[in-house]
Structures are given as structure tokens and as C-alpha cells.
Amino acid sequence: MREHHLTLPLTPGITDDVLAGDIVHLSGEVVMSIGLPTFRRLRQELHDGVPPPLDLRGAALMHISSSGRRLDDGTHELDYINTTTTTRFDDVMPDLIRGYGLSVVGGKGGLGEESVRAMRETGTIYLSIPGGGATLLSSAVREVVEVHWTEYIWQFQLIKTRFEELGPLTVGIDAHGTSLYSDLKSKAENRLPAIRAALSARREADLRARP
Amino acid sequence: MAISYELLKTVTSQMYARSLRHVPVEAQRALSKASADEPDPLARRTLDLMIDSAQQAQQRDHLLCSDSGIPTYAFKIGTRVDFEGDVKAAVRDGFHELAATSDPPLLKHVTNPLTNERGYEGKDMPIMSFDLIDGADHVEIVCSPKALGTGRWSTSEILISPTLQEIEEFVLDAVVRAGSQACPPMIVGVGIGGTFEHAAHIAKEAILRPMREEAANPIVRDMEERLRDAINATGFGPMGTGGRTTAMAVHVNYSSGHGFTPVAVNFNCWIDRRYGVRIGNDGTVTHDV
């Protein structure tokens, strides 16, 4: 487990050295949203050749939720941030990762095989954000840079935020295609026959001990 | 002597607000124990971050998670209790007031499943369940806002005259299906028997049972311990990035039934969102029970 302090935009090739299971503290501008309609629309517009409302080429596009608002002077403020489960975005992420060459994605719970393949092609890393860590993570917010698609509820909008040392975040999937999530799932499934056998043996012992 | 609308409205609103900023002390202890027992440095670091987040949320009156969930309240009403005013209206109005005044604000999570519109209000919100306690002159209420991270992995199946082995393997499979996703280490609640809806209800009761309370039935106690150890052998670990502790506890509840045996499984994430109060008929409120 190594620790990295990464600044966006990432230097090309830097993710080669960031491995699954490492820790990252992330600084720079991240585009955040947790809206399924938002991500589906991004993919549709990518297919239709409509440019996105903000530059996503090589960007960090992460599933980070937030509470915030636009102030009268046109600036924005955030109250807190945290994350959401990313597997429900599995159907849209591969196209977005490939289409925009995203450098960083992330949230919690990982992404599926097709996303991992796409990330390997583009050198993308997935950062796991601790659910329930709003208290600690929110202190890394420095400013809201821009906000788009304001017709959605706040946390579904596309919000570009500048962070300083957001973290600690765990590299859940690295740019070489190693995914802690698929590794752990396979290991658990492979262990299941032995776990079931141990469970049965213990059940029989428990029942014998309590006639 | 009676429990008033105003008191219920204030207390149920406070319960929601506190449940979002507060990790029950037993869960904090379980996280500390998991950290002490964890050989993997990444898993230990994740657990320590959770412990830190729990402590700071309480000290700084900060929300733990951006998903403040949808409001659910479980009532147990003593049969000697008198109410002055409406009960369901008090809870509904209390939540509306909280949603309008909360600092920091709560996000809109209440979703109409027919239109996907989101807000703070909706049909059947807040979700309330009611039970009675014969002879008691108090009300027990537990507020447990339900978020997407764990809510989506709840499952149930009707088994036919199952063996304990079949029941336990169903629970194990439900945990493996949730895998890394339900913000482990979790509390796993299991309801066995009764009818379709009753099994789900007692599974929820199992989740809400404080960790300090043991199951009354010795067969259930044994089942809880061996299921917890089996789940922890899967290795998903804190935040699903690997480690020894995937479940802090397994709580099992059962009911007599017919030859068809529903088994329901639900999950609480590491925050273990639950906040209980007891309100006496004289209006005395005991918090965090």
C-alpha cells in the first residue's frame, strides 16, 4: 500500500504507477454528479456529437454527491459532499471513459468488467470514496468552479469543484485492469464451498451442544 | 396525562436529525474491535477513518453521509398511553419542518416510483409501522432513515419447509450478492417465518435490535454467531476493498408460520443508522435508547 498525492489534470502516464490498493489524496478540479439521468444524457450527447457543457477530455468525472446552492452574486457554495454506489452507472461508464479519455472516475462499490476494460485502454483509475465520510471529506472542498444542467436537482447537476487533498481515497481499480472488487468477488465465490462446509460443521456441533 | 401532537412532532423530527449525525456507541465499539483485529493495513486504515468520521460528526454536529435516506419510523405503543392530537400527522409535519429548516439541508431523496420525481414529500411518507405493548404506559419509537447503498440489497424468498442449512445459505448468498457495495462492515438482519410481509417486518426489527441486546433463543444466538463468522470469511471487508470484517453483527428474528417459510434479509451500513426514544405518558422523553 503506497500513498500518492495527485494533482489534476494528471500528467499522462502517471496512473501507471498508481496500483489497486494504494491510497490517493486528490487535488484539482473534479466534475461531480450522482444523477442517472445526467450520465445517460452525457452518453447520449456524446453519441449524437453534442459537445458537453464543460470540457471532459481527460477529466476526473466522479460520482460525488453534494448539497449546495447558487448564491445571489452568481457564485456557488457547498455544504457537504459524499459518494454513491457506482455499479448502477455500469451501462454508461464504458462509453464515457473511452469517449472522453477520463483520467479518474470513482465513488463506492466499483464498476463492472466493461468499465474496467475501458479504463485499461485509457489509463483511468477508479478511486473509492469512503461512504459515511462526509465529515472528513467535505473539508477538502475549496471552490465550486462551474455548474451546468441546473434543470436537475442539485446533486444531479454537473458541478465542477476544486479540491485540495481530497482523501484518503483507495484505488479500487487501477489502469492495468486490476479491480479489488472483481478480485474480492471471485475470491469470495471460490471460498463459498469451504465456507458452507465450515458453516454446516459448526451448525451440527452447535445443535449437538444444545439438545 | 397524554402524549401531545407537538411533543411527537418535535421528538420525531429531532430523532431524524440526530440519526444522521450519530453512530450508535455499540457500532463504534465494534468498529474499534474490528480495527484492532485487522492485520491488513488498508482495511485498518479504512476502519480508523470510519471511527474518526463517527467521532467528528458527533463533535461537530455534521452529517455522516450525503444520502440522508427516506424517513422510516417504527412505533411500539403502550396500551395505557393516551394521545392528544394526531400521531401520523405529527410525524409527517415534523419531517416536513426538518426538511424545510435543516442546517445543513437534506438532499431530496423521496422519489415517486411512477415518475422518478424527487422531493421531500410523497405517498406514504414518512413510512411508519405500528405495534402495541400490552399494559405499558409509554411509546417506543425507532427512526432509521433508509438510504440507497444498503436499501437496494434487501431480499427475500419463500422456502418450503427449509432446513437450517438452506436458510443460512440463503443469507450467505444474499451477502455475496451485495458484495462490496453496501458500505461494510454491516449489520445483517434476518427474518425467518410467518408470512411474506411479516418476515420482512421482523428482519427490519432484527436490524434495529441494539447490538448490546442478545437474542433470547439459544438456537438463534448460535446461528447469529456462525453466520457472522461465515460472512466475515468472504473477505469483502471495510468499504468492500478487502479485510476481515464484512459484518459487525448478524441479528436473526423468527416467527412461527406454515410449511412455507419466508426468509428476508436486510442490511444496515457501518453507520448503523438507528435512533430510538421512549416517551412516557407523562411526556418524559428518554433519548438514544
From TrEMBL, chain A:
Keywords attached to this entry: Lyase
Domain Fe-S hydro-lyase tartrate dehydratase beta-type catalytic positions: 20-183
Keyword Lyase on entry: yes
Any single Pfam family the record assigns to this protein: Fumerase_C
Entry's Gene Ontology molecular function annotations: hydro-lyase activity
Membership in a protein family: Belongs to the class-I fumarase family.
Protein name per UniProt: Fumarate hydratase subunit beta
UniProtKB/TrEMBL annotation, chain B:
Domain Fe-S hydro-lyase tartrate dehydratase alpha-type catalytic: 12-276
Gene Ontology MF term list: 4 iron, 4 sulfur cluster binding; lyase activity; metal ion binding
Entry keyword set: 4Fe-4S, Iron, Iron-sulfur, Lyase, Metal-binding
Domain of life per record: Bacteria
Record flagged with keyword Chloroplast: no
Entry-linked InterPro entries: Class-I_Fumarase/Tartrate_DH (IPR051208), Fe-S_hydro-lyase_TtdA-typ_cat (IPR004646)
Pfam family, one: Fumerase
Residue ranges of the TM segments: none
Keyword Nucleotide-binding in annotation: no
PANTHER family: FUMARATE HYDRATASE-RELATED, L(+)-TARTRATE DEHYDRATASE SUBUNIT ALPHA-RELATED
Stated family: Belongs to the class-I fumarase family.
Protein name (Swiss-Prot/TrEMBL): Fumarate hydratase subunit alpha
